Amino acid sequence: MKISVCGKGGSGKSTVVTLLANEARHKGLSVLVVDSDESNSGLFRMLGFAEPPIPLMELVGGKKNLKEKMGQPNILAERQIPLAHIPSQHILRRNGLMLVSIGKILQALEGCACPMGVLSREFLRKLRLGENEIAIIDMEAGIEHFGRGIDTSIDAVLLVVEPSLESITLAERIRGLAGGIKKDLWAVLNKVNSESLASRLRNELSKRQIDVIGVIPNDSTIFEACLEGYALGQGEATIAAEKVLDSLLSKR
Amino acid sequence: MCLSTVYINSGERQKVVMQDVAQMKANSDGFLLIGLLGEEKFVKGQIKSVDFVDKHSVVLEKMQKERLGS
Fold first, then answer.
1. Cβ contact, residue pair B23, A67, below 8 Å
2. Which positions ≥6 away from B60 have C-beta within 8 Å?
3. For residue A218, which of A234, A194, A247, A242 has the smallest C-alpha distance?
4. CB distance from A103 to chain B under 8 Å?
5. Where are the beta strands (DSSP E) in B1-70?
6. How is chain B split into domains, by residue range?
7. How many domains does chain A have?
8. Given a cut of 80, is residue B55 above it in pLDDT?
9. Boundaries of domain holding A120
10. Shortest Cα–Cα distance, A116 to chain B (Å)
11. What CATH number should be reported for the domain holding residue A29?
12. Which tens digit of pLDDT belongs to each residue from A229-245?
């Protein structure tokens, strides 16, 4: 199963990705996290890795050396990419938790992220998962990834919605875009600490034909981990994330 | 998307030659196309049109002399 985690910038996509990945590990699944956000750089820390992986973009030379290295063979040119074929320097592994990164914008004036979009789309299209494996994709904020076709090979979209009108209206747009490519979509509410607020948000999303499958509270352990750059630990949010994961897995 | 799809006119229809083309190198009778993920393909023809904004496409057609001779 390939799950794309989408939403407004700052809504907590990377946090939700990390919580779901940790819970999937606890259930004995092998989890590949795909960092498909070319801006944010801290996902590896949240997942408890000391360093980020070398981006897959480097397989084709990175943006700087793209033209020089483009003609050389690499796994991205293969018809299928099982997890075992990903070169070790490009994938971090720890107890069944794995992380790959598509690429990051590193310098001013380096140009657009189009090559990363293509690479992300092709990697996800060719990625072959076994019975006990799932992939959770940390998408870039907003909706451009739909325009680039990155979501075409995923099985479902998980929308992260925070308590703001901006987040809700973007959720509606994402529902339309995901529907346009016939993808299942569910929402998870994030940073929501009261049942009354959750109820208001559920109601607003229901008007927009979006089902909510979980509510993740503000959790002081997450706040502290994000502030200091620690791996996310156990907290209230962990229990909520387990329910979200169970719900997703039941829809396989 | 900045990466382009290269087509060649084939009768009334356009046929896709390669998608996600990152580089085109011209020689006397055609173009070497190089895709982002490493594939390469040579195609004979000349450029008919390039759309940088909407379709991100390059349309090739057979050379004039080739068509006259064929």
1. yes
2. B6, B7, B8, B9, B17, B31, B43, B45, B46, B47, B48
3. A194
4. no
5. 4-10, 13-27, 30-35, 40-44, 46-51, 57-61
6. 4-65
7. 1
8. yes
9. 2-250
10. 10
11. 3.40.50.300
12. 889 888 889 999 999 99
